[in-house]
Design brief:
about 40% strand, about 20% helix, binds zinc ion
Length: about 170
Amino acid sequence: MAYSANLGGYGQLAIANIGKQTQINLSISIPGQQQSQSSSFSTGNWLSKPKLFQLEQGFVLEINTNQNSQYILIQQNSISTIESPPELNRYPQIDLTAIAQESNFEPMQPMQPLKMGNMSMNLNSMSMQMGNMSMGFNNQSKTSINKQFCSQCGKEAQLGDRFCRSCGHELNQ
Ligand SMILES: [Zn+2]
């Protein structure tokens, strides 16, 4: 199970239950830069979809596991478990959107498309080289075309011959 949540101007949160770990990835958007931090907690398996609440000082994630409810406080620069949360019902809840497990937890997510862009550029230049290689092949096959063979008896003919020296068949020059 993996979810993401948009924390408004604060950033983007992604959570996942990997094994018995709850993994949290927080991407903070500050104008001009992107900060990202990940934390992992031994919470056990989630029994249900977690809940995310917005408090004055940050966000609290409520996780229901077989070790009962656990709470994780998410603030600007810290992600930590808390023993006893405040009365969460007083606070607005933030929607968690189910996401594919693979598409999360890349701390440098914004960098990856750039790298992939470079790779695809490399691939393009490779395919150009492959184009050159296939031109080379064409040149080779041209030289073999210049060697003529009689279409009647198959004997090799000399360049410029109009008729086969073996059987006299007219050669297509
Ligand atoms: Zn011939």
